[in-house]
Amino acid sequence: MTPGTTPPAPELPGPLAALAPFLQHYGYLAVGLLVLLDNAAIPVPGQTVLILAAVYAGAGKLSLAGVVAIALFAAVLGDCLGYLLGRSGGRALVHRFGRYVGLTGARLHKSEEFFTRNGGKVVLGARFIDVLRQTNGVIAGTTEMPFRRFLLWNILGAVAWVGVWSAVGYLAGSNIDQVYRQALRFQLYLLLAVVALVLALLVRWVLRKRRGSE
Predict the structure, then answer these.
(1) 107 lies in a domain?
(2) In the chain, helix, strand, coil percent, each to 5?
(3) Residue 184 belongs to what domain range?
């Protein structure tokens, strides 16, 4: 490689390779758009494009500072849009359709109490779990979590999420294939742990209800 030339990007695993042409064509706009939508209740590969953009930054094709700044702004804004969506229409949808999925007014009230106690932790940690990343803002808005408190945890969650995945992509370099697969495995284990916790809480609630009826 001659002096002054940009090193080639490392070989990419399947999901990253599929997004590469989109990122190459639109650059920072692709990062901002997909991260924004991914945090605003729309399931697009925002996290994947963030990692890919950081890989490109490590190869000198993008600025890491630019990627981080745009992703941070888009992640915070996306979650705020989800919050506004939940705050403006989420409660009406619950009252109209909630009974079809077992979400009654009483259960919504319990959800609001849960978010009052633990909403900050949920907003912070949800960024690292698919589905929760897309919906935590909507849930926070629907349960009427105070906006200032939501915004604080939203910003902290965005800083942690963008910081972790941009560092992973930037530092992985030619090892991105192996690192990416390990990251996906970690996310799967985390999701399974959350599902197991929800099931345990559901079983506990059913048992307590049964004991109360007896």
Answers:
(1) yes
(2) 80, 0, 20
(3) 14-208
Tell me: the pLDDT tens digits for 55-108?
888 888 889 999 999 999 999 999 999 898 888 876 665 555 444 434 455 555
- Rounded to two decimals, the pTM is 0.72
| Run of H or E residues at 201 | helix 176-213
**Mind giving me the DSSP string for 111-161?**
HHHHHHHHHHHHHHHHTTSTTHHHHHHHHHHHTT--HHHHHHHHHHHHHHH
- Measured CA to CA in angstroms, residue 119 lies from 4, 77, 123, 125 at distances of 49, 18, 6, 10
- Has residue 8 been placed in a domain? no
| Integer Cα distance of 123 and 111 in angstroms | 14
* 62 in a structural domain: yes
Q: Which amino acid is at 80?
A: C
